[in-house]
Structure formats: structure tokens, C-alpha cells
Design brief:
Order of helices and strands: HEHHEHEHEHEHEH
Structural class: alpha/beta
Shape: globular
Largest sheet: 4 strands, parallel
CATH topology of the largest domain: Rossmann fold
Number of domains: 2
Distance between the termini: 21 Å
Helix content: 40-55%
Number of helices: 8
Strand order of the largest sheet: 4-3-5-6
Strand content: 5-15%
Radius of gyration: 20 Å
CATH architecture of the largest domain: 3-Layer(aba) Sandwich
Number of strands: 6
Oligomer: single chain
Amino acid sequence: MQVLREDHPQSVRHVFYRMTDPRLLEPVEKSDRGYRHVQSRCVALRRTGKLPYGWLSDTGRMGYHVHTFTGKADFIRSMAGHYRADLWADAEFKAEVWCESRSIAGVILADCQELAVALYPCGGFTSITFAHDAAQSMNDADDGRETVVFYMGDYDPAGVLIDVALERELRTHLDPDVSMRFVRLGITPAQIDAYD
């Protein structure tokens, strides 16, 4: 699949959306049937070895593990790999990335981890609890610097409202002296004009 060769990892849902592009020679219909077709094709390609397993992400499922150690020395060795300097300590602002869906999160997670930036997938309109907890984290970590929230989401009738609702909900729970700037990175009208 050319879509995955060009950019991976991606979620199956993200591949599906890319495959519905009407400019493709054979676009997939944007329906449950079309999604199932892309999903079954991905399974078949993975099972035959033509599609590497690491090219698809599934952030909707995860295992829970208990970390144990063979002794004190084993524990100390394991901790050495966990130290990471704060890349943002001397920056003028702190950054967070929010996105509309877990499928988008699966695509950008590695970049966020490399840049030491928190990533929050909303799953559509975010819950009050999720926004409250994130705002409390901003309140607790406030050091006088502005927090910039970079947002990525669809530009459809619901997608253009999700970030507005999210920003409003975050601000509802922020302490008055905590500074936050909200920036929509994508999808924007300019990007639609440039790439459509």
C-alpha cells in the first residue's frame, strides 16, 4: 500500500480515510463496508508479510504490565534508561499537542515522544474529565511560562467545533494566572486550498 510506504505508522482508520480520496484511481467508498474492506486488506497483507506489522498502529488497545526486578542491581540498571533531560526547560513556552482522534495520535505519537511533548487524543469532543485533568496538570506545572496547545483535527462540520469546545473547556478549569495559547495546526482552510 503506497499510502503506508510514504508515511508510517498509521492507524487502519487513517489509511481508510486516505483511501477514500476521490483523486485515487480506485477510491474506497466512505462507508462501514469500505472501512471493513481496507481493514481486511491490511490483515491479509500483514499475514502474507507484504505489510510490516509496525506500519500500522493501534492506540485503542493496550496491555497493563507489572514491572518486576530480579534484585536491587537489576532495578538500578533499569532506571538508568529512564532519565531524560527536559528539552523545554529553557524554552520561552511549554507545549502540548492535542488531536481529534486516537488514529491521528497513532501517527504523531513517536514525534511527540521524541520532542518530549505531551499528547492528548480527544476521541471526538473531549470529556469534561479529560479536559479538567489536563488543565489541572497545567495549573500544577505553572512556572510563569505560557503553555501553547497545538491542535490537529478534521475540518468537517463537527471537526471545526471540537477545538473550539476543547479550548473553552480547558480555560474553564485553568487558574486565572495560568497563560495558555491555543493554535490549530491542522486542518486549516489554507491547507485545504493548498492540498485539495
